[in-house]
């Protein structure tokens, strides 16, 4: 059995229909900050349970319910979520995290560093810096295998 994790970030208050379609099969959704409006989370929750953290642009009462970082365990895989990777305040490997999910740069990427998988789903809200709008899907398979797919919106 596998678990499909939808990953989204930097929506800045915009939830595109294409993003919802791309994430529609997700078992769980992670939002890596700069949500913009609670409406974004409400729309994502119609698909699956959502883990969300606040980004540097998330202000106001509605955003107080979201932490700045969060540790999540899904199907035996430990995931650390923060908005800006430059603000990483721990050693993921030492703390037992298998994956780090982050946003902020609006650039989709995946890389492995020190046996930890780092994923940035890219931005899916306002188009910025001539970068494509993207979300990511993370397939967590039994036995620990992981597969990341980026979807251009």
UniProtKB/TrEMBL annotation:
Gene3D superfamilies, per the entry: 3.60.21.10
Known EC number: 3.1.4.-
Keyword Iron belongs to the record: no
Cofactor(s) recorded in Swiss-Prot or TrEMBL: a divalent metal cation
Enzyme class label: hydrolase
InterPro entries the UniProt entry points to: Calcineurin-like_PHP_lpxH, Metallo-depent_PP-like, MetalloPDE_YfcE-like, Phosphodiesterase_MJ0936/Vps29
Transmembrane feature ranges: none
Domain Calcineurin-like phosphoesterase: 4-140
Keywords: Metal-binding
An annotated Gene Ontology molecular function: metal ion binding
One protein family per Pfam: Metallophos_2
Family recorded in the similarity comment: Belongs to the metallophosphoesterase superfamily. YfcE family.
Name of the protein in question: Phosphoesterase
Protein's organism: Caldisalinibacter kiritimatiensis
